[in-house]
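User: Hi! I have a protein structure encoded as tokens and I'd like to know what sequence might fold into it. I'm fairly new to this, so please keep things simple.
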């Protein structure tokens, strides 16, 4: 039985050129790269390839035809009377055999394309295109995420190395360092997490995207997403203080009459604030009303404690707060947390005392003032009269 042999038709240079052009243009469109950027990169790389593979020191130009996909190498020479450097120069007589009207000083191009240059060109072009695609993809990723700094993003945990969590974001991977992870949270491969984009850096290996679950901006953005009144500008989130994984405070305000900014953030049956608390793994959130009056703002910031009075020193940015005796521990909080968060939220140093402590301090101050008055000499005392006058 006769064996059938399949005929393979060898592609002509013209066909190969057209196929190359079609492939190049498809890649440029798919990867969102300008065609001309690829053409120019290939031409530049081919100059180096020509000199390396064909041992030439000539000043050359490589042209990749945008119509045929064919490569052409041209040696660039200057027309002189008597050439001294044959690599860079050509005699006037020789130049006029190419074109009769050449003159001394003209720069001409002579095609010197080697017969087997196509193979070298194809290999070089492939390498350059792949490199440019990688660079373009990195650039596209950087541009995409650089514009999303200070925003929330959802990703999938890809792997965990040396306590660093690597999160897959579409075609790229972001990193969340231990410092940016909420204490007590545990992450596993495949987990879906929401995080805050802190920074997007350019590196030699491509863009590095830094995520955070501890940044105050995460809490701020979560409320912006949950509360329509913040989105439309009716309610403004003025400041945030966080101790990630434990407790946070936010200060909100509205200039529209009849709008309760705290109630808007709490939501019906506490649903809005609860959604934020759940996203942060149970981190409790106090919502207080912001005020341009520092004393009122500080009093609100110490919520849930009740405040009797607040004295402020505007110059030193120090406040002295008095609370009922039974509220002192609540105002200070466990290990000073409530007072610490209130200070962060307001930007003021806060000194808290109970009513009993304040009264005791006032009594001591009064006694000290009285003692000072007794010890001081009277200004209007009559001068002593010398004896015998």
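Assistant: Happy to help. Inverse folding works backwards from shape to sequence: for each of the 389 positions I chose a residue that suits the local structure. Here it is:
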């Amino acid at each position: 039985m006769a064996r059938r042999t399949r005929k393979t038709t060898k592609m002509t240079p013209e066909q190969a050129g057209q196929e190359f052009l079609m492939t190049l243009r498809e890649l440029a469109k798919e990867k969102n790269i300008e065609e001309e950027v690829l053409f120019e990169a290939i031409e530049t790389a081919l100059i180096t390839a020509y000199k390396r593979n064909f041992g030439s020191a000539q000043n050359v130009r490589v042209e990749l035809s945008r119509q045929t996909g064919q490569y052409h190498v041209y040696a660039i020479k200057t027309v002189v009377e008597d050439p001294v450097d044959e690599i860079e120069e050509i005699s006037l007589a020789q130049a006029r055999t190419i074109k009769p009207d050449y003159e001394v000083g003209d720069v001409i191009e002579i095609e010197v394309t080697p017969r087997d240059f196509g193979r070298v060109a194809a290999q070089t072009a492939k390498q350059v295109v792949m490199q440019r695609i990688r660079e373009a993809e990195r650039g596209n990723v950087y541009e995409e995420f650089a514009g999303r700094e200070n925003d929330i993003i959802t990703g999938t945990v890809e792997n965990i190395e040396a306590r660093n969590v690597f999160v897959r974001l579409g075609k790229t991977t972001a990193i969340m360092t231990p410092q940016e992870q909420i204490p007590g949270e545990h992450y596993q491969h495949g987990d879906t997490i929401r995080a805050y984009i802190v920074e997007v850096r350019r590196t030699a290996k491509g863009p590095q995207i830094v995520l955070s679950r501890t940044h105050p901006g995460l809490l701020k953005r979560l409320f912006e997403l949950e509360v329509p009144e913040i989105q439309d500008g009716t309610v403004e989130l003025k400041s945030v203080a966080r101790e990630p994984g434990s407790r946070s405070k936010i200060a909100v305000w509205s200039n529209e009459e009849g709008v309760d900014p705290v109630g808007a953030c709490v939501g019906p049956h506490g649903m809005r604030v609860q959604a934020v608390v759940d996203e942060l793994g149970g981190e409790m959130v106090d919502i207080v009303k912001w005020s341009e009056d520092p004393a009122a703002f500080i009093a609100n910031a110490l919520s849930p404690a009740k405040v009797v009075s607040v004295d402020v020193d505007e110059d030193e940015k120090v406040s002295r707060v008095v609370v009922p005796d039974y509220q002192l521990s609540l105002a200070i909080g466990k290990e000073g947390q409530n007072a610490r968060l209130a200070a962060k939220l307001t930007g003021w140093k806060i000194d808290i005392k109970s009513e009993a402590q304040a009264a005791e301090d006032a009594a001591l101050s009064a006694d000290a003032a009285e003692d000072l008055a007794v010890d001081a000499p009277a200004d209007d005392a009559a001068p002593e009269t010398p004896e015998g006058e």
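A useful reference point when you look it over: The CA atoms of residues 102 and 119 lie 34 Å apart. Feel free to ask if any position seems puzzling.
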